[in-house]
Amino acid sequence: MKIIQTEIEGVVIIEPDVFGDDRGYFFESYNQTRFDAAVRPVRFVQDNESKSKFGVLRGLHFQCGRAAQSKLVRVVKGKVLDVAVDIRRGSPTFGRHVAVELTAENKRQFFVPRGFAHGFSVLSDEAVFQYKCDNLYAPESEGAIAWNDPAIGIDWRLRPEEVILSPKDSCHPTLAECKELFDYNTDYYA
């Protein structure tokens, strides 16, 4: 696998080695030993899958405190724009984001470490999205940032009238208003 460092330390794009011929293809989507050595040691404990139609925007979500999660995400059908936002107060990249296009064709994966909010927009007619989490879902620890916070300035590659949100995702606070964030000087993996 090829590890692509992004402009924010710890947020990486992973491109697998794909072996294809006239029968189809094969690739290793995850290998814990290689991942731990190339990215960081993480023990994934939950796999999730979602299916969404064009225009659906999910995010920007995170879990706080001891329930903080890292995510390793990929698309198995369709195309999404996947985004990680640094929400670690005191970080030199606080409030900045990384966006990457994930498709069934490019087979890229995106690692979102603890201390980041995560979201994605669906750019194809339909998308099936899979993600591994290194902590179990804890609804009491949920946090979120407004998807359209102008201070973050994410281009979701959708026109405003195309965006489809859940009622919950339509009313999150801005980053400046959010009280439950992370501290850059705290190790959330300890």
Automatic annotation (TrEMBL):
PANTHER family: DTDP-6-DEOXY-D-GLUCOSE-3,5 EPIMERASE (PTHR21047), THYMIDINE DIPHOSPHO-4-KETO-RHAMNOSE 3,5-EPIMERASE (PTHR21047:SF2). CDD domains: cupin_RmlC. Gene3D superfamilies: Jelly Rolls. InterPro entries: RmlC-like, RmlC-like_jellyroll, RmlC_Cupin_sf. Catalyzes the epimerization of the C3' and C5'positions of dTDP-6-deoxy-D-xylo-4-hexulose, forming dTDP-6-deoxy-L-lyxo-4-hexulose. GO terms for cellular component: cytosol. It catalyses: dTDP-4-dehydro-6-deoxy-alpha-D-glucose = dTDP-4-dehydro-beta-L-rhamnose. This is dTDP-4-dehydrorhamnose 3,5-epimerase. The active site is at H61, Y131. Pathway: Carbohydrate biosynthesis; dTDP-L-rhamnose biosynthesis. It holds the Pfam family dTDP_sugar_isom. Keywords: Isomerase. The lineage of its organism: Bacteria, Pseudomonadati, Bacteroidota, Bacteroidia, Bacteroidales. One of its GO terms (molecular function) is dTDP-4-dehydrorhamnose 3,5-epimerase activity.
